[in-house]
């Protein structure tokens, strides 16, 4: 009785830990892509990286769904990058997904 429960628990417990560590890392980004986001510290880049899911939702909904992380990242990019000030929200959301 305990063995199936233990196996089930072991199967599902590591998944959230792996997902959170992947999301918090720079895995999947190249050194060049992260330096293009801005010349600021890694703490600022975290705002942009955490907006990736919101950016994907924004793009998939053709701009109808705007998440809080995306709004923060758009504001961050426009404050730090002169070219981003003139870019559309859709273009910046696509840029966020590339990072």
UniProtKB/TrEMBL annotation:
Comp. bias intervals (Low complexity): 25-42
Segments of this protein annotated with the region Disordered: 25-44
Keywords annotated in UniProt: Signal
Record keyword Signal present: yes
InterPro entries recorded: CHP02448
Pfam families with a match to the protein in the record: DUF2388
Stretch forming the signal peptide: 1-19
Name of the protein in question: DUF2388 domain-containing protein
Organism: Stenotrophomonas mori
